[in-house]
Give the backbone structure.
Amino acid sequence: MRLQAAPRFRDHREDFLARFGASGPACRVFFAPGRVNLMGAHLDYNGGPVMPMAIDRGTFVAMRPRRDGRLRLASSSEDGEASFELEGLLAGLPPASGAWWDYPLGVLGALAPLRATGGLDLFFGGDLPVGAGLSSSASVTIATAVALDVHFGLGLDVQAAVDAALLAERGYVGVNCGIMDPYAVGHARPGHLLVLDCANRSSEHVALDASKYTVAVVDTGVRRELSRGEFNLRVEQCAEAFRLLAPFAGDAANLSSVPLAVLEAEGARLDPVVARRARHVIEETARTLAARDALRRGDVAQFGAAMFAAHESLRILFEVSIPELDLLVELAAASPGVLGSRLTGAGFGGCVAAVLEVGTEAAFADEVRRGYAAQYHREPQVAFYRGSPGIGEVAF
Ligand code: GLA
């Protein structure tokens, strides 16, 4: 897709030229969005349904070929610069180093076998808050796949870019991420949520009328080091719940499809904490399917009510919320025009999402900023999104 040359893309190209010099072949710029998940919390790795929306902020990659056969990687937001001999990389990647450039390198590895055609400079940037639960890593990997597709003339379709992004994170960076993020980033459609069945990867687009509703994301500013460990613990607890319940659950292939009646009858076999995690997953699955049906009917009020219920479940049963997130959801609930709100992403910090009526944005932002500052003595970042144009190259 060709994207309009907005000032943010021009600025990124200028930054590239300032850093790497203005002479040489033309510099091209590619974009991939971030995403906000509105329903289906912690369901992707349980084989359940999720309802993300890609947003109009994301990753920019500026790219220019070089003659000397080297691949140079730099970023406007991360320290350090890496330079490799491209042909050597294509023969086999070095072990992941823990640096930010593992993500683009992993994509290169996932797209191999490739034939080196000269070298290239890749310069990363963007306007997506990092670590806020808006899927900055899938945005980087998909944007990289789109840029490399053009450089190497691969003719990839979107699904191939999604697969490369997944393989890069799982197989090279070493993060056992779910499938939601690259799917949401890759398959976005403006004015729609993606409904993705994470068990069989089938999906549909359901409209959220952008002339009537806005999606807000409010960032607590809290980033927790422990969140990766806590996330992995939730993944393990869900796996344990499924292992213990599966013998009683007929042909259920994952925790999301275990009937609630089975949990109620056999739940005593589970550690009480594990049983709470299972209840969240099973109830959130039903809630997300009901929310999808509501949205298909255009009933955004019922969709919003499901978001509030999801937050309560994440707070009490899944225990991934923190007081800062709870306060933001309470403030959203009290703000006129807000239909629903919940934490988004993994939790333990990051952001809440809210769906509100167009025209109520300013009042919402005021109330949330004031209420949060009264308690925590700093203002949260508030952003409004109406959906992403999708992935593609910027037409200058
Ligand atoms: C993180 C993961 C996603 C998903 C969410 C919870 O954002 O990257 O794959 O599991 O948490 O819904």
In short: The CA atoms of residues 237 and 274 lie 6 Å apart. The pocket of alpha-D-galactopyranose is lined by residues 37, 41-42, 44-45, 133, 177-178, 180-181, 345-346 (CB under 6 Å). DSSP finds twelve helices and 13 strands in the chain.
